[in-house]
Write a structure and sequence with these properties.
The chain is an all-alpha fold. It has a domain of about 45 residues. About 70% of the residues lie in helices and about 0% in strands. It has three helices and no strands. The protein starts with about 25 loop residues before the first helix and ends with a helix. About 0% of the residues are buried.
């Protein structure tokens, strides 16, 4: 049963269908950007957690690296912490 106002309102779309994007690249580009941003955020969180762990477990190496301005011992220790964490996870699985 149709109402009287169904025919009273003109059916004009606000956007011409020919102007709509037929290309899905705009949507996939935003999805890729979000995925990359999420991956960078996860990686930054892992490095931050490893740095905090290293400060708590081996503060002498951190203090020496900061004092001397040499980053290589700190990076080496961070790599060791990350390696041990991944090896522990793989042993658990």
């Amino acid at each position: 049963m149709a109402t009287w106002y169904a025919n009273a309102v003109p059916r004009i779309s606000a956007v011409d269908p020919s102007e709509l994007a037929t290309d899905r690249d705009a949507d996939t580009g935003m999805g890729r950007a979000a995925s990359v941003a999420g991956l960078v955020a996860i990686l930054a969180a892992i490095v931050a957690a490893a740095t905090i762990w290293l400060v708590l477990t081996d503060p002498v190496t951190v203090a020496t690296s900061v004092e001397d301005g040499e980053i290589s011992p700190l990076v080496r220790q961070l790599a060791q912490v990350l390696y041990n964490a991944v090896a522990g996870l793989l042993d658990y699985l």
